[in-house]
Design brief:
Helix content is 52%, strand content 15%. The chain is built from 30 helices and 24 strands. Strands 3, 4, 5, 6, 7, 8, 9, 10, 11, 12, 13 and 14 form a twelve-stranded mixed β-sheet that branches. Strands 17-20-21-19-22-18-16-23-15-24 form a ten-stranded mixed β-sheet. A two-stranded antiparallel sheet has the order 1-2.
């Protein structure tokens, strides 16, 4: 336990009194210790949870990518051609025996390099024919007269991956040879249904100089149809109707016959050219994003590298040992392409997440430093007295460090434990490092600040308020350095953007802008106070003048609270703008994909009463019924252009409301008999046909002459880049019948709209389309990070102001008690405390809102939110940019102002409940 030793107390020479420092301080100020512990625990929890949360959503994103890619792309196949014809027949047959393949399968699995982990339940091996075998049986379906074709597969583990629906599993003798007279097989339920196969059916396959009958002994149902066992080659469970390439019109069925693994040697007698294969299924549950580079390296080594060579060397051997895999053994997989696609998405999202993490982390560090600085400022007299009575600077610093560590270390450990419980997945070392960093910053903030202030022994100091103390040269140099760094970060971000890997300086751009703004406002803060002090002095009351005078006498150490406030408000505003930009981009993309809030369309004319029924559905405000003809041919040519017949008033209102090609309804009116009908056209269509009148051939044989009067970029009724829009009255009654209804409204009921629409109609809702754009946990995880950054920024801003007000609360309480002894009323005291705290709060709130707004506009050219907002494969993606979010600008600033006013009112009320003498004693004690 650290101790403080007081000298010169009147005791005999050599006598000294020892007081336990840490225990005394904790007993003297338990509230401050508890507040510091809560701050450290919360900050350590957030810091430790962040890297684990990133690991969790990145791992989930990789697993989702693997699931969406399906087993036929993620599976790893090791395959070898049929045994060499140079071998004796018995040796060729023995190479295909199950026991030999099983031994080789074990070696193949052992040769897979880490970190690639296989799923033994879905991995398998066997023998299959590589050429389709036509079967002449006439009872098999023949859509165009061409015989059906089959593939024979002897795959291990059929009984474990399928349940028998009818019959039994196929069997074969352990020593069966290629000359076997008959073969047993099973088929899946889908294959049996499509190819009209029943238990007992016999399929005749051509063989070497004979016909090989294959008797179906059972029909099986896959237990996990989507698993790698069945889905790596989906033909095993589901037959295909093959269409020959044009100009041929032939179609034929192709299915799989599942034979017993012991019957694999019989496949040598067929013309199917059998091959051996070892089918490896990666375990999706063990895929981790941080292992992606190592996974790609392992796959490259397997496909054409050391792992493949080692695999061949380890399991190649003399033919007589029956363990050889031919030297032409190859390994193929598309898992590396899946990893590359995922890495591209992750590399697009990571810089945006780094910006949010840098902002929230900087705010947390500033608040921790501010807490230590305010504590040092509050205890300035105490520490100055200790220095005057002989305490050394190293000893004082060590005792302050111990005092803080006793509180911060357990709080940091508690925060770390809470983070580990809240986010159970992710890397442990990063979480520990983050919690340790928070604890270390907290422990050194107070000692370093005290050492800087009390390095010279002095008891009395002059005025050090913000209005009188001029910034030192060192501070000016530091501020100019930060200004240069902020300018460089902003320019770099605007030039390079976040599409690639951003460095630390670029990630800190929003925070640096907030820091520079805070430093500028601190320098400007005394100017309005001096300007208002003189007019306030002429007022009859003393409250306004006194409050401004006290606000101007705020300690120069107020730079840290103001810095924390502006940095936190800027971080909250930037994070809110990111979320707003993501939401707006998804809304806009969904609108482009649907054309309105809902779309009901068919390829044929809609029932006449459908628009009225849809108009009465819940949430529908307006609708526009249009006729869309996809096969209209301008100038009787070969090119088709969608022709849309609309009601000018309804369609103009819809276009204006959706901001998709707004126009005036009068543009489509006119065109008397014999004249060309006015038309709206896309840019591409107008460029091709010009503004002269030209005929349009309709599918019913009629002709409409149109003249393009307005060129639009897009229109709600057509989702493509080519269209013509005309007045429906210009069309024939048959061509004018609506085929599409576009609905507008809020909270549309998709179930009710689908119920009112015909069964043949397709119904698309903008809200449902919007949900489709979130296709990866990477996107939702990044959104969660920014939502947390907004909440953390707002919370730390409120906390910074609260700590600042709490630091000066004893002085304000004592002042209020003295003034009450001089006749100050409670209402006047309340106004005094509110007006005294408002200047800093107003400066922080207004400055934070303006800084956030300026940061968004400065950085928006370099911030691309497409990776978070929209799917990477969406062809309609038009990009997503930062959007100013009023709530993220106003709400944190309003919270700061409300806290300042609420604190003043609460302190005035609490002081009124206590006597003036007690308040004066409390203030003197402090």
């Amino acid at each position: 336990m650290s101790e403080v030793r007081f000298f010169g107390t009147g005791k005999p020479a050599g006598s000294r009194e020892t007081v336990p420092w840490v225990r005394t301080r904790l007993r003297t100020a338990p509230g401050a210790a508890c507040a510091l512990a809560v701050l450290v625990a919360l900050t350590a929890c957030l810091a430790a949870a962040f890297p684990r949360a990133v690991d969790r959503y990145e791992d989930a994103g990789l697993r989702r990518a693997a699931e969406q890619a399906r087993a036929d792309r993620t599976g790893i196949e090791v395959y070898a051609p049929q045994p060499s014809p140079m071998l004796r027949p018995s040796e060729r047959e023995d190479v295909l025996r199950p026991d030999v393949l099983a031994a080789q399968y074990a070696k193949v699995r052992a040769g897979v390099p880490r970190p690639l982990v296989l799923d033994p339940g879905q991995s398998t091996y066997g023998v299959r024919t590589t050429l389709n075998i036509p079967v002449p049986d006439p009872w098999l379906p023949r859509p165009t007269g061409r015989p059906a074709e089959v593939t024979l597969v002897a795959q291990a583990g059929l009984g474990a991956h399928a349940s028998v629906a009818e019959g039994r599993l196929p069997r074969a003798d352990d020593h069966v040879t290629a000359t076997a007279p008959e073969l047993e097989a099973a088929v899946t339920v889908d294959t049996a249904k499509s190819l009209h196969i029943k238990v007992g059916s016999v399929i005749h396959s051509p063989a070497a100089g004979r016909t090989l009958p294959i008797r179906v002994t059972g029909i099986v149902t896959p237990r996990d149809p989507k698993g790698a066992y069945w889905s790596t080659h989906s033909i095993l469970r589901t037959p295909s109707l093959i269409r020959e390439p044009a100009p041929s019109v032939d179609m034929y069925w192709f299915g799989a016959l599942l034979v017993a693994p012991e019957a694999a040697p019989v496949l040598l007698a067929t013309p199917g050219r059998p091959e051996r294969y070892w089918q490896l299924a990666p375990s999706e549950r063990t895929l981790r994003a941080r292992d992606a580079p190592a996974l790609r390296s392992a796959l490259a080594s397997l496909e054409a590298g050391p792992a493949l060579r080692k695999l061949r060397l380890e399991i190649d051997g003399p033919v007589t040992e029956l363990t050889a895999i031919d030297g032409q053994t190859e390994i193929s997989t598309d898992l590396d392409e899946v990893l590359i696609t995922y890495d591209r998405l992750r590399e697009s999202v990571a810089p945006l997440v780094a910006v949010a993490a840098s902002g929230a982390g900087t705010v947390a560090v500033v608040v921790l430093l501010m807490a230590g600085g305010l504590t040092a400022d509050r205890r300035r007299s105490e520490l100055a007295l200790l220095r005057a009575r002989g305490a050394s600077l190293p000893g004082l610093t060590a005792r302050l460090f111990a005092e803080t560590a006793v509180v911060a270390v357990p709080a940091g450990a508690l925060g770390l434990a809470a983070a580990l419980l809240t986010v159970p997945e992710g890397r442990f070392p990063y979480a520990i490092a983050a919690a340790v960093a928070v604890t270390a910053v907290t422990c050194v903030a107070l000692p370093l600040r005290a050492a800087a202030v009390h390095r010279v022994v002095r008891v009395h100091t002059g005025r050090e308020d913000i209005s009188s103390v001029r910034p030192s040269r060192r501070r000016t140099v530091a501020e100019l350095t930060l200004l240069v760094l902020a300018a460089g970060a902003v320019e770099s971000l605007r030039r390079r953007g976040t599409s690639g890997s951003a460095d630390d300086l670029v990630s800190l751009a929003p925070v640096l802008v907030g820091v520079v703004a805070a430093l500028v406002l601190v320098r400007l803060y005394p100017l309005p106070l001096r300007g208002l002090a003189r007019p306030a002095a002429r007022l009859r009351g003393a409250v306004a003048h006194l409050s401004l005078a006290r606000a101007g006498r705020t300690s120069a150490s107020a730079v840290l609270p103001l810095l924390a406030l502006l940095t936190a408000l800027t971080t909250a505003a930037f994070g809110g703008s990111v979320l707003a930009g993501v939401q707006e981009a998804r809304d806009h993309a969904a609108l482009l994909a649907v054309g309105a809030d809902a779309r009901v369309e068919t390829g044929a004319p809609l029932p006449s009463g459908l628009p009225d029924r849809l108009r009465r559905q819940p949430g529908v405000s307006t609708l526009s019924a249009v006729s869309v003809t996809s096969e209209a041919k301008p100038e009787n040519g070969a090119l088709s252009v969608p022709l849309v017949g609309v009601n000018p008033a309804d369609y103009a209102a819809l276009s204006s409301r959706t901001d998709m090609g707004a126009f005036e309804a009068a543009r489509l009116r006119g065109g008397a008999a014999g004249e060309a009908a006015p038309a709206l056209a896309s840019t591409a269509t107008a460029r091709m046909y010009g503004t002269r009148p030209f005929p349009v051939l309709l599918p019913d044989g009629g002709t409409l002459t149109v003249r393009i009067t307005t060129v639009l970029d897009r229109t709600p009724a057509v989702l493509g880049s080519d269209f013509l829009v005309v007045n429906r009255e210009a069309l024939s009654p048959a061509a004018a019948r609506p085929t599409t209804v576009l609905l507008s409204g809020t909270s549309l009921d998709g179930t009710a709209i689908r119920k009112a629409a015909p069964k043949a109609a397709s119904v698309h809702l903008r809200s449902e389309e919007r949900e489709r754009y979130v296709d990866s946990p990477l996107q939702t995880g990044a959104e969660g990070v920014y939502a947390t950054a907004v909440a953390a920024g707002t919370g730390y801003a409120v906390l910074a102001l609260f700590l600042s007000l709490l630091r000066t609360a004893p002085d304000r309480t004592a002042l209020l008690a003295r003034l009450r002894t001089m006749g100050l009323t409670r209402a006047a005291g309340r106004r005094l405390l509110i007006l005294e705290s408002l200047p800093q709060a107003v400066l922080a709130a207004v400055g934070g809102a303006l800084t956030g707004w300026a940061t968004i506009h400065l950085l928006s050219p370099g911030i691309d939110l497409t990776a978070i907002a929209l799917p990477s494969a969406d062809p309609s993606s038009t990009g997503a940019e930062l959007r100013t979010d009023a709530l993220s600008l106003v709400v944190p600033a309003a919270a700061v102002l409300l806290l300042a006013v609420g604190t003043g009112v609460g302190q005035a009320w609490w002081s009124g409940r206590r006597g003036s003498v007690q308040e004066l004693r409390a203030g003197d004690a402090r």
